[in-house]
């Protein structure tokens, strides 16, 4: 297993879920410096921490360790989702930045709504 791969996958999951390092550390009861070590590849999580990370990010230990490919692929997306992604790809970099900011606001708003 590449320890750098673990850090990259965790970082990608954090971006996808719009989660901060602080939120992850608090939820998993991990010291920020320890978590930074996982992200940089300088430290390896224990089995218990790895299991908690997988549960937190709603993924598998195999994915975090690099034994399985990313779970989300274009094949898993609906036609509407693919069309939206293609339209986003046609925007200028500035337009993409604006869209990302708008999506973050929408996600933030709906994550606070009662289910």
Automatic annotation (TrEMBL):
<keyword id="KW-0238">DNA-binding</keyword>
<dbReference type="Pfam" id="PF01381">
    <property type="entry name" value="HTH_3"/>
</dbReference>
<protein>
    <submittedName>
        <fullName>Helix-turn-helix domain-containing protein</fullName>
    </submittedName>
</protein>
<feature type="domain" description="HTH cro/C1-type">
    <location>
        <begin position="10"/>
        <end position="64"/>
    </location>
</feature>
<dbReference type="InterPro" id="IPR001387">
    <property type="entry name" value="Cro/C1-type_HTH"/>
</dbReference>
<dbReference type="InterPro" id="IPR010982">
    <property type="entry name" value="Lambda_DNA-bd_dom_sf"/>
</dbReference>
